[in-house]
Structures are given as structure tokens and as C-alpha cells.
């Protein structure tokens, strides 16, 4: 049986972009196509990096609380899925800015050390491969950043950072990341000087990659700290069709980043028509959180944390849509942008539920030689069987039997049919039945889907369409009125 994450591969839909301007959508689609990577990864990198460039210049207020536009973003995917090239392409203009600022910073730092003067501020935006203590020092220096941008911790493999947080000390750094998510003042007293440091309103965004098999180590299932609930997960929606590079789009993105760096500080508020919607949706998430608390407390906490995310996303998108056209953002966030932010947040909740399931898988079944040959043939149909058989050291007859599946047993046929059904219904439920998906807090199991095989598509779809979920015990209840026994093999 294939592991859950493999069965679900490619089923996650493309994140919506209807709330973005034509210019922003064009940049995202073009950058994704140039590197032959998923648009979901590029969109995640654009939102996270742009929000970090805005930094503390932009405060998002809802009448009671404030937020800065920082995000903790995790790109989840297998090796070769396009995570790294997506991020590298998007970060190009920020890295060019950093290269110039880093040279100036090093020059001023050496001068300050030589004459004993005050050390210069740190104006760069991206850091990576960094210890926690060094991160604190940089955040302290960023308080005097003349551009007032945020700090982006970029990690090509998130576990390489968070799996070794305290390798040089005996402390526990994870609580600091929980506090920095909310941009609350933090006091750091474990540094080697006697005075310690007070970092006022630290702005930290995180953008990194992880493979499904590492999710369990990154987000332990018994961790009750709330670390999992602070992340936006971006799953692959399949690679974009490749196109040639067009410098116009990258130049437009570079200009947008430059304008965001130079823009003045401002406060963003929600319009009067948005405020009641904001309060109503917050309450709905609170109710859903209460509903799921006993059956899936981790997902329940994740849902309630999206009250912060929706405000941050709204502020980022509102600013991006204006700055990409060369305008200073209007101080008021309108209904269209807010509703788009809510739509994105609903996708983040779905992605978090999928990540939970990926994390629960302990191992991946090894593929047999027959399964490997079949997978190769599915991706690139084997035209010359003799040549292919000779190249891998097996007989022509064996390759033929694998491709034609002449030796497939009844149990193998059933398993293959079950996998196909699982993929189909996982995709159908995620795309069309959000209420059911949220209420249960997970996708159906293989055993549940197997019990559905006795019913045709119309029966299942009609039942899903009519049913209102008021019970947290799982998808099995859905067909309890029909199912008396599993289908015979």
C-alpha cells in the first residue's frame, strides 16, 4: 500500500488568485512557468517575502488589535517538486538588495570596531544558516534599520534549522519563535554579556522547505506548544508548463520590491463594511475550534490562529496590489481583498489537515521492480520493450507482463482499484465538501473508502450533497445507513 502522502500527491488544488491584480497574477504565473514549478510555491514565496519587505512600516489594525505582516511559511513537497527554485527565483531582487547593503554594513562595522564608535544598524533582509543567539543580535540591530524592513529567515530545509536549534547551548529556543510570531517584545538574557537585550516588536518572517518524511520531526504529534498552528503550509498543485524567461516580469517584480523597501510607514485599517464580516468569521472559527477541540485539538488550535493570518494576508495583498502599480496603498482595506484573504485562509486550513495526515505516516513502502517499471511506463510510455528490458537487465517477457499486467492477481487489481478510488474521493471531498472536511478534520481512511466501493459515483455524490454534518466521529457514519459489510474480493 502506498503511503498517504503519495496517494494524495497532486490532489491539492491551486491556491486562488482572484483577489490579486492582473499584474501580480502575471508575475506569479510567469515566474512559476519559467522555472517549471507549482504556482502554489511561488505564491507562498511572494506573499511571505513581500510581507517581510513591508516589515514594521505597515501596521494592520482591526479596531482592537494590531498585526504586522509577518508569516511563517512552509513549502511541503518531495525532492524535485520545485520548492527550492520557486523560492530562489522570487527572492532574487531581495538578495540583490542585500548584497549591496551587506558590503556597506561590513565596511561600517569594521570602521566602528577600529575607532570604538557605535556599531551600524543591520539593513539586510534575508538571513540563513544562523544560530539562535546570532538571530537575536541581528534582530536587535534591525531595530535601527533605516528602511524598517523585517527579517526573513530563509531555510532550504527547515529541519536543518529547527532540528538543531540549541546545538550550541543548553537552552530551549522554540518559545522565542512562538513569541516572535506575534511581534511582542522579548527579553533575551542568556547572551554572553551581563546586560542582555530587549528587542522591541521583533519582526521575523520564516520561509522554508520540508519533505513529507521530515514533518514528524519538525512538528511532533505530542507537542502542545502551538508551534504547528503558526505556520502556513503550501502544497504542490503540480508543475506549471514551462515557458521561456521574459525579463519584463522579473523587472516588474524587482521594481515592486524596491518600491516596498522605500515606501513610508503607514497604518492599514479595515473598512466599515469589513469589520462586521471580520467579527463574524472570527466567531465561526471559534465555534469550529470548540467543535473540533476534543477530536482534533491541534487542528482546532490551528483554525483559531487563522484569525491572525487573515489580517496579515489582507494587509499584504492590499499593499501588493497597489505597490505593483506604483501607488502608495490606500489606508483602508476593502471588502474584496478581505474576502480573498478569507478564501486563502480556508485553503491553509485544508493544507494543515493534509499535513497532519502526512506527518502520521511512519514509513514508505519500497516499490517492487514491477511497480517501478509500471510507474516509468505511466510517466513515459515504453515504446521499445526489448531495448528497455536490456538496459535494466531483465527479460523482454517480464517487462511485457509488467506493462500489460497479465500476471496481476485479483488482490492486486482490488488494491489498484482502491488506490484509484481513494485519490478520486480525497480530491472530490477536499474540493467540494469543505464543511464535511473541517468537521471531521481529516480525509477518509483507506478502509472507509473501501467500504464505499460497492456504491457507484452517483450514490456517493448524492449522499455527500444532501448530508449535513453534526457528528465528529468520522466519515464512516456517512454511509452507515448503506454499509453492512465490505465488498468481497
Search tags:
single chain, 489 residues, alpha/beta, 5-stranded parallel beta sheet, 19 helices, disordered C terminus
Explain what this protein looks like in three dimensions.
It is a single chain. With 489 residues, the chain is an alpha/beta fold. The chain is 53% helix and 9% strand. It has 19 helices and eleven strands. It has a five-stranded parallel sheet with strand order 4-5-8-3-9, sandwiched between helices. Strands 2-1-10-11 form a four-stranded mixed sheet. The longest helix is centred in the N-terminal third of the chain and has 33 residues, at 83-115. The chain is globular.
Q: What would you call the structural class?
A: alpha/beta
Separate helix tally? 19
| Major sheet size, sense and barrel closure | 5 strands, parallel
Provide the gyration radius in Å: 25 Å
Average pLDDT for all residues: 83
Gap from first CA to last CA: 16 Å
Helix content: 40-55%
Tell me the total number of β-strands: 11
Helix and strand pattern: HHHEEEHEHEHHEEEHEHEHHEHHHHHHHH
In the predicted model, the low-confidence regions spanning at least 5 consecutive residues are 1-10, 469-474, 481-489
Strand order of the largest sheet: 4-5-8-3-9
Gross geometry: globular
Q: Could you tell me the strand content as a percent range?
A: 5-15%
Amino acid at each position: 500500500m502506498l503511503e498517504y502522502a503519495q496517494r494524495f500527491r497532486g490532489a491539492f488544488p491551486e491556491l486562488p488568485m482572484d483577489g490579486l491584480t492582473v499584474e501580480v497574477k502575471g508575475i506569479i504565473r510567469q515566474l512559476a512557468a519559467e522555472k517549471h514549478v507549482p504556482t502554489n510555491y511561488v505564491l507562498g514565496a511572494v506573499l511571505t517575502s513581500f510581507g517581510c519587505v513591508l516589515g514594521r512600516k505597515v501596521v494592520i489594525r482591526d479596531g482592537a488589535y494590531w498585526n504586522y505582516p509577518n508569516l511563517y511559511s512552509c513549502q511541503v513537497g518531495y525532492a524535485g517538486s520545485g520548492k527550492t527554485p520557486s523560492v530562489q527565483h522570487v527572492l532574487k531582487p531581495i538578495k540583490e538588495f542585500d548584497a549591496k547593503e551587506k558590503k556597506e554594513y561590513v565596511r561600517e562595522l569594521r570602521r566602528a570596531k577600529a575607532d570604538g564608535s557605535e556599531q551600524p544598524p543591520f539593513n539586510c533582509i534575508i538571513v540563513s544558516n544562523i544560530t539562535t543567539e546570532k538571530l537575536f543580535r541581528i534582530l536587535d540591530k534591525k531595530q535601527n534599520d533605516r528602511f524598517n524592513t523585517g527579517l526573513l529567515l530563509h531555510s532550504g530545509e527547515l529541519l536543518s534549522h529547527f532540528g538543531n536549534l540549541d546545538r550550541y547551548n543548553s537552552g530551549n529556543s522554540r518559545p522565542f519563535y512562538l513569541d516572535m510570531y506575534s511581534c511582542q517584545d522579548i527579553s533575551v538574557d542568556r547572551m554572553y554579556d551581563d546586560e542582555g537585550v530587549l528587542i522591541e516588536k521583533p519582526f521575523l518572517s520564516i520561509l522554508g522547505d520540508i519533505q513529507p518524511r521530515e514533518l514528524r520531526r519538525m512538528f511532533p504529534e505530542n507537542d502542545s506548544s502551538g508551534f504547528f498552528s503558526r505556520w502556513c503550509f503550501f502544497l504542490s498543485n503540480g508543475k506549471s508548463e514551462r515557458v521561456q524567461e521574459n525579463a519584463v516580469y522579473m523587472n516588474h517584480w524587482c521594481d515592486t520590491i524596491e518600491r516596498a523597501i522605500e515606501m513610508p510607514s503607514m497604518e492599514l485599517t479595515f473598512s466599515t463594511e469589513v469589520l462586521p464580516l471580520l467579527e463574524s468569521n472570527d466567531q465561526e472559527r471559534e465555534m469550529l475550534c470548540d467543535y473540533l477541540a476534543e477530536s482534533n485539538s491541534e487542528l482546532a488550535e490551528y483554525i483559531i490562529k487563522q484569525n491572525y493570518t487573515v489580517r496579515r494576508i489582507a494587509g499584504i495583498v492590499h499593499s501588493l496590489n497597489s505597490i505593483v502599480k506604483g501607488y502608495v496603498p490606500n489606508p483602508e482595506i476593502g471588502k474584496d481583498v478581505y474576502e480573498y484573504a478569507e478564501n486563502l485562509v480556508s485553503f491553509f486550513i485544508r493544507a494543515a489537515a493534509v499535513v497532519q495526515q502526512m506527518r502520521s505516516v511512519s514509513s514508505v513502502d519500497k516499490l517492487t521492480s514491477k511497480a517501478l517499471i509500471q510507474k516509468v511506463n505511466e510517466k513515459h510510455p515504453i515504446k521499445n520493450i526489448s531495448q528497455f528490458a536490456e538496459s535494466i537487465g531483465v527479460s523482454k517477457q517480464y517487462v511485457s507482463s509488467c506493462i500489460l499486467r497479465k500476471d496481476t492477481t485479483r488482490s492486486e487489481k482490488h488494491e489498484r482499484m482502491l488506490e484509484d478510488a481513494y485519490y478520486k474521493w480525497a480530491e472530490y471531498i477536499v474540493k467540494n465538501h469543505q464543511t464535511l472536511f473541517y468537521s471531521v478534520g481529516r480525509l477518509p481512511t483507506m478502509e472507509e473508502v473501501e467500504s464505499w466501493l460497492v456504491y457507484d459515483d452517483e450514490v456517493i455524490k448524492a449522499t455527500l450533497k444532501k448530508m449535513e454534518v453534526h457528528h465528529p466521529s468520522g466519515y464512516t457514519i456517512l454511509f452507515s445507513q448503506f454499509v453492512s459489510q465490505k465488498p468481497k474480493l
